[in-house]
Write a structure and sequence with these properties.
The structure is a single chain. The protein is built from 4 helices and 2 strands, in the order ααββαα. The chain is mainly alpha-helical.
Length: 107
C-alpha cells in the first residue's frame, strides 16, 4: 500500500471536483433528461433546500436529483442523506409509513 500525503490527497480531491463539475451538464442530461437550467429552476423553487428535511446540501456538495427508478420521472432535489434514505427504503411509501409509525410508537 502506497502512502498518499495530505497534499496529494487534497490535489486529487480538487481534480475530482473539477471533473465532476465539468461533467455535470452531461450527467444531468444522460441520467435524468434535464438541463442545468432545469436543475437551477428546481433549486430556486426549493429555496436551495432539500425537499424532505428543508436543509441545504453539505458544504462542497449539491442537492441530488431524486427520481422514480421505475418511470424515470424527476421528483425534486434532496440532500444526500435523504436521497440515500429513500433508496434504502426502495422508494416504497408503505415501507416508509411503517418506519414512521415504528418511530412514533417508541416516543
Amino acid at each position: 500500500n502506497v502512502e498518499v500525503s495530505a497534499e496529494e490527497k487534497a490535489l486529487n480531491d480538487a481534480i475530482s471536483l473539477v471533473v465532476q463539475e465539468r461533467n455535470f451538464p452531461d450527467r444531468l442530461r444522460a441520467r435524468y433528461g434535464i438541463t442545468v437550467d432545469d436543475f437551477e429552476r428546481m433549486h430556486a423553487a426549493q429555496n436551495g433546500l432539500c425537499a424532505i428535511c428543508d436543509q441545504p446540501a453539505k458544504s462542497g456538495q449539491r442537492l441530488d436529483v431524486d427520481h422514480c427508478h421505475d418511470t424515470g420521472v424527476v421528483r425534486g432535489l434532496l440532500c444526500r442523506s435523504c436521497n440515500t434514505s429513500l433508496g434504502g427504503f426502495k422508494d416504497d411509501a408503505d415501507r416508509l409509513r411503517r418506519a414512521a409509525a415504528y418511530l412514533e410508537a417508541s416516543r
